[in-house]
Specification:
mainly alpha; Cytochrome Bc1 Complex, Chain D, domain 2; two-stranded antiparallel sheet; 8 helices; 2 strands
């Protein structure tokens, strides 16, 4: 019986330590991970410096002028487009929470790390719980 228990424990330990990719993915999607918290802290600074004027301190935006980031269906459903908007700006019509927005967001000149950090901050603020950890590497691939 002791051998069976030891074998079971050994398999669990081996399986959990077997892959760096698995560990990275678990950390990256964990809302309490130190990496995410640090990224969000940096992202809050970027948001307060570059985004707050249009999207406001509560992320609710300005109705029919600047779309909300708080509880935004567009943000949830269009992570790649949202990352590209933070990096390269955006213009043209989009629909957010059933409201049409057709304004221009100029490119802000953010680095890949700043984009990743601000998106991680937005994804996890104002009630958003978007389980998509953004890294500078992911941003650079876009």
């Amino acid at each position: 019986m002791k051998r069976l228990i030891l074998l079971g424990v050994s398999i669990v330990v081996f399986a959990s330590c077997n892959s760096n990719t698995k560990k990275t993915n678990l950390v990256a999607t964990n809302q309490d991970s130190p990496q995410l918290k640090e990224s969000m802290e940096r992202g809050k600074i970027v948001y307060e410096d570059m985004c707050i004027t249009c999207h406001l301190p509560d992320g609710k935006g300005v109705p029919r002028a600047f779309p909300p980031l708080a509880d935004s269906d567009y943000l949830r459903n269009n992570q790649t487009k949202s990352i590209k908007a933070a990096k390269y700006g955006m213009s043209g019509e989009i629909v957010v929470n059933g409201i049409i927005y057709n304004s221009t967001m100029a490119p802000l000149g953010l680095s890949d790390e700043e984009v990743a950090d601000v998106i991680n901050y937005i994804n996890n603020s104002w009630g958003n719980t978007i389980d998509h950890f953004v890294t500078p590497e992911k941003v650079s691939k876009l």
